[in-house]
């Protein structure tokens, strides 16, 4: 009577161990993004592909974003290392999120979009054109 119980428990424990080792799927967290408010919805970058604007965007990025987001936009800047959560990966965000969403987050700040309050609002600090130029530059990061 003891042997069948021992076998059943062993099979159950091995099955649990196997399932735990195999489970999980993707190790990348799912990022949930809110839709931007109506005033931002559908906005597109007027400087996409404009090299002079991209060059200006690089200068603005270096002055305003690089300390947290890093030289290549991976969120690995020196000031970003102490933030929790760490700054976002702009290379990935520029591929995954709409231009309207990215503009909204930079303009209104992370908290407005349900993201980290560490992402400051640049409304009143940068003009809309300057934000768009930064975003045009971010699209070139690799």
Summarize the structure.
This protein is mostly helical. Helices cover 47% and strands 0% of the residues. The protein is built from six helices and no strands.
3D structure, described in words:
The structure is a single chain. Helix content is 47%, strand content 0%. The protein has a single domain (26-138), classed as Cytochrome Bc1 Complex, Chain D, domain 2. It is mainly α and 142 residues long. The longest helix is centred in the N-terminal third of the chain and has 21 residues, at 2-22. The chain has helices at 2-22, 51-64, 66-69, 90-96, 99-108, 128-138.
Helix content: 40-55%
Global structural class: mainly alpha
Poorly predicted ranges (pLDDT <50, ≥5 residues)? none
Mean pLDDT value: 87
Biggest sheet details: none
β-strand amount: under 5%
Name given to the CATH homologous superfamily:
Cytochrome c-like domain
**Ends distance:** 65 Å
How many E-type strands?
Answer: 0
Count structural domains.
1
Radius of gyration: 22 Å
SSE string, helices as H and strands as E: HHHHHH
Number of helices: 6
The general outline is elongated
CATH class: Mainly Alpha
Based on the structure given, which CATH architecture is correct? Orthogonal Bundle
Task: Could you tell me the CATH topology label.
Answer: Cytochrome Bc1 Complex, Chain D, domain 2
Describe the structure using short key phrases.
about 140 residues, mainly alpha, Cytochrome Bc1 Complex, Chain D, domain 2, 6 helices, about 0% strand, elongated
